[in-house]
Amino acid sequence: xxxxxxxxxxxxxxxxxxxxxxxxxxxxxxxxxxxxxxxxxxxxxxxxxxxxxxxxxxxxxxxxxxxxxxxxxxxxxxxxxxxxxxxxxxxxxxxxxxxxxxxxxxxxxxxxxxx
Amino acid sequence: xxxxxxxxxxxxxxxxxxxxxxxxxxxxxxxxxxxxxxxxxxxxxxxxxxxxxxxxxxxxxxxxxxxxxxxxxxxxxxxxxxxxxxxxxxxxxxxxxxxxxxxxxxxxxxxxxxx
Lengths: 115, 115
Prior knowledge:
The complex is a heterodimer of chains A (115) and B (115). By secondary structure, chain A is mainly β.
């Protein structure tokens, strides 16, 4: 069974700094997607960025980028020039493409951006 | 831009009562999901639904739970006899064609409080 592990329950950084959230996962599959979701206090689930496992190039979305290390099964999220609006819970997530396509979430990292 | 919507946003019920949570997916979506998030915990998969039948369900999705698309648009989750531990945020998600990757679009969630 696939698992997703986020080892940082909570982090705080100053506004404008860069922060990296860690995530590791375990799977025996070769074709899958990895995601980072943001959950602000409203509790809406917002897709921040996704990475296809077959792509070697790391995904980037504006200030958000990932460091995808497939062999190490590592998928970290880097937020550059952090903003107060980035304060939220961040979930790393996995989706297998070969069979079922449910999303498996990690336990989340609560990120506080300090003014 | 079309969105997945959920009603109600907050439901308070007495233990033992039946509740029905409703989701309206985007019109061309074919695959539907329910996830649950107990306060402070990770998001957990409950059930997936395609072509008017359950594709997969988790161990959480016991006989107290059921899903259906009664009118071809709404997608509902019914909890027959609620328990205190059913208190959680319930997210509906939907996606289009399975062949090519399609994002699972999450609704805003229904907060269920069982007293």
